[in-house]
From TrEMBL, chain A:
GO molecular function, one term: ABC-type transporter activity
One term under GO cellular component: ATP-binding cassette (ABC) transporter complex, substrate-binding subunit-containing
Domain of life from the UniProt record: Bacteria
Lineage: Bacteria, Pseudomonadati, Pseudomonadota, Gammaproteobacteria, Oceanospirillales
Protein name, as recorded: ABC transporter ATP-binding protein
Keywords: ATP-binding, Cell membrane, Membrane, Nucleotide-binding, Translocase, Transport
Source organism of the structure: Nitrincola tibetensis
InterPro entries: AAA+_ATPase, ABC_transporter-like_ATP-bd, ABC_transporter-like_CS, ABC_transpr_MalK/UgpC-like, Mo/tungstate-bd_C_term_dom, NA-bd_OB-fold, P-loop_NTPase, Transp-assoc_OB_typ2
Domain ABC transporter: residue ranges: 4-234
Entry keyword Signal: no
UniProtKB/TrEMBL annotation, chain B:
Keyword match Protein biosynthesis: no
Bilayer disposition of the protein: Multi-pass membrane protein
Compartments reported by the entry: Cell membrane
Domain ABC transmembrane type-1, residue spans: 67-279
Key words of the record: Cell membrane, Membrane, Transmembrane, Transmembrane helix, Transport
Taxonomic superkingdom: Bacteria
GO terms of biological process kind: transmembrane transport
Family classification: Belongs to the binding-protein-dependent transport system permease family.
UniProt cross-references to InterPro entries, sorted A to Z: ABC_transporter_permease (IPR051393), MetI-like (IPR000515), MetI-like_sf (IPR035906)
Transmembrane feature ranges: 7-28, 71-92, 104-124, 152-177, 198-220, 260-283
Protein name: Sugar ABC transporter permease
Gene3D superfamilies: MetI-like (1.10.3720.10)
Originating species: Nitrincola tibetensis
GO cellular component: plasma membrane
């Protein structure tokens, strides 16, 4: 059963169209990441679901009830903000039980739930402190605790980890995911960080300029990107797109390998990343288009040195060069034969 | 290096220090010295009086009346104008159309000098043709001798002061409200907190630093601002509206007893310092500074 149902949701301001008729569903216990570049309408979508922003049109329903026009507090959802939005003058304990107090939950039950939640997020020692006395990571836990304690059927999170440093973000990512699975929470998680979305989510909703570019499991977005936008957004470094006239050939840097009889290439520069090296190469046989490839370990290749590369045919993707849409999974003759493909492609009907 | 820095710091402070000493601290000390003498009579040099000026203050019925009046004046104007200021700030901070015009309207009384305000209100209060009495008459009530009736005179002054001061304090509250984090309010809305609950548990506590600042200023103003007395009542009728600072002025420039005025000044100064200290100590403890 789907818990949250969004139908044709739209938001426009005078001259900006932030969200363009998007529809999606979230099932009970699912962790869905709303992913997209800055300004694509993620926060706006989340705010409309929370009731903090009125949709221009469309409907939102939660557990079968239409909540499109309910005030935020009556929707039965919890929210974690990017800025944590903790009450600076209240103690940590007061911050966490704020919602319970506002809803008139009795003192006894409040204390029990507070105890349970603070154990979950490891905040036991800090309950009497003020938010200003905690670190960013601890504040994040408080915000999380405040969302968990509500035991709401849906939890919304707007870039909750983006204010933390890289190491802490990695830790919190795993912790958050573990907590979500343990409690069976339904989460809609906004992020612009594809690694976060890929590693945490059951499903990713990739948004581009207010529209859903693709929706699917992290693996589906990586393996069968529906368009060049998805292909370039997911994966780091992004997928190489080789222009072949009527179509674009996509191949991920990590899927390119060195070969004895592959396509001839010339090294432009090397970027050493520790575990691997990103190498920019140009392809003389394809009018000197440059692509990136990723090789494990420390590879020191002088600029101008010659290589031969190749890839497996199942790793390549084909996109229409005008619309950018994925073309049906036609098995191309391998490029190594240099038989330039003249065949017509028909647009994929599944996306 | 360190010594040079110290010297440098003192040199930078010197201009302000000189001005402060010349126009604040030294006059305060001479006032203290001055208050220990009797006024000079004719050619005789003024005689040392010790604490005689202060003793006669205890027996001075007008002083006590002015003191009482001033306390009531403060009690009557400070909380009301602060509450009004907060209410207006909340109102013009909300999403209403034409709020810029509304803000300006509320702020206008503050831009007018007190003397001008007093002249406007003199017209409101005039017994026969005044605005207030005309309104009262039109609904069939008898008019009030606002400034002439000892029971009403101080209240009339308070009304005008509230009108003038609350717009000024509103600006501080408005600035504070606008600096509050919007996400906090979104979070409270998601938690189903009612507007009243949000005001009581969030807005009011977060405005406490502003409240302290406004409170101290309002109390000081209640003792410092007497310009309107010159226009409206001159302390009358029968000292019903005499305030401490105005009484000091009367002693110095109408009765030419500058020594007694100096003693009164010192008492007022000490009173104000005490009030400020008490307010800081009381409120400070309940304030959360970010
Ligand atoms: N109150 C508003 N009035 C007018 N336009 C707005 C308003 N809020 C957002 N927008 C516009 O709507 C678009 C989407 O904004 P939104 O905040 O949803 O982006 P986002 O995907 O959350 O980006 P980010 O990752 O930077 O947070 C932007 O172009 C923004 O300029
Ligand atoms: Mg955002």
């Amino acid at each position: 059963m789907s818990q949250l149902e969004i139908r044709q949701l739209r938001k426009e301001w005078q001259e900006t169209l932030a969200v363009k008729n998007i529809s999606f569903e979230i099932a009970q216990g699912e962790f869905v990441a709303l992913l997209g570049p800055s300004g694509c309408g993620k926060s706006t979508t989340l705010k409309m679901i929370a009731g903090l922003e009125h949709p221009s049109s469309g409907s939102i329903s939660l557990n079968g009830q239409d909540i499109t026009h309910l005030p935020p507090g009556k929707r039965g959802l919890a929210m974690v903000f990017q800025s944590y939005a903790l009450f600076p003058h209240l103690s940590i304990a007061e911050n966490i039980v704020f919602g319970l107090k506002a809803r008139g939950v009795g003192a006894l039950e409040r204390d029990q739930r507070l105890k349970r939640v603070t154990d979950l997020v490891n905040l036991g020692d800090h309950l009497s402190k003020r938010p200003s006395q905690l670190s960013g990571g601890q504040c994040q836990r408080v915000a999380l605790a405040r969302a968990i304690i509500a035991e709401a059927p849906l939890c919304l999170m707007d870039e909750p980890l983006s204010n933390l440093d890289a190491k802490l973000r990695n830790e919190m990512r795993a912790e958050l995911r573990a907590l979500q699975q343990r409690l069976g929470m339904t989460v809609l998680y906004v992020t612009h960080d594809q690694v976060e979305a890929m590693s945490m989510a059951d499903r990713i909703l990739l948004l581009n300029q207010g529209e859903i570019a693709q929706c699917g499991t992290p693996n589906a977005l990586y393996q069968t990107p529906a368009s060049t936008f998805v292909a370039r957004f997911i994966g780091n470094p992004p997928m190489n797109l080789i222009n072949k006239g009527s179509f674009l050939l996509g191949i991920r840097p990590e899927h390119i390998h060195l070969a004895t009889d592959g396509i001839a290439a010339e090294v432009i520069r090397c970027d050493y990343h520790g575990a691997d090296t990103i190498i920019d190469i140009s392809l003389p046989s394809l009018s000197h288009q440059t692509i990136k490839l990723r090789l494990p370990g420390h590879q020191l290749l002088a600029a101008g040195s010659a290589l031969n590369i190749n890839w497996r045919s199942q790793d390549q993707h084909v996109f229409c060069s005008t619309t950018g849409q994925r073309l049906s999974d036609y098995v191309l003759p391998t490029l190594t034969t240099h038989s330039l493909i003249q065949k017509e492609f028909h647009h994929d009907t599944q996306h | 290096m360190n010594r040079f820095n110290q010297l440098y710091a003192w040199l930078m402070l010197l201009p302000a220090l000189v001005l402060l000493l010349a126009f604040t601290h030294i006059p305060a000390l001479t006032t203290l010295w001055h208050s220990l003498f009797f006024p000079a009579r004719g050619r005789n040099p003024s005689e040392f009086a010790g604490l005689e000026n202060y003793r006669s203050m205890l027996d001075d019925a007008v002083f006590w009346q002015a003191f009482h009046n001033n306390l009531w004046y403060a009690i009557g104007t400070v909380p009301t104008s602060m509450a009004l200021a907060l209410a207006m700030a909340l109102w013009v901070n909300s999403k209403i159309s034409g709020r810029a015009a509304l803000r300006l309207a509320y702020f206008t009384p503050t831009m007018l000098p007190m003397i001008a305000v007093a002249n406007i209100w003199l017209f409101f209060y005039t017994p026969e043709i005044g605005l207030f009495n005309k309104i009262l008459n039109s609904v069939g009530l008898t008019g009030i001798n606002w400034l002439g009736d000892p029971n009403w005179a101080l209240i009339s002054l308070m009304l005008m002061t509230i009108w003038k001061e609350s717009g000024f304090f509103m600006i501080f509250y408005l600035a504070a409200l606008q600096s509050l984090n919007k996400d906090i309010y979104a979070a409270a809305a998601v938690e189903n907190a009612s507007p009243l609950y949000v005001f009581r548990r969030i807005t009011l506590p977060l405005l406490m630093p502003t409240t302290l600042f406004v409170l101290v200023n309002a109390v000081l103003n209640a003792f410092k601002l007497v310009d309107h007395l010159f226009i409206l009542t001159k302390g009358g009728p029968n000292n019903a509206t005499n305030l401490l600072l105005y009484y000091i002025y009367e002693n110095a420039f109408s009765f030419f007893d500058s020594n007694y005025a100096a003693a009164l000044t010192l008492v007022l100064l000490i009173l104000l310092i005490l009030l400020a200290v008490v307010q800081f100590l009381l409120v400070e403890r309940r304030i959360h500074y970010r």
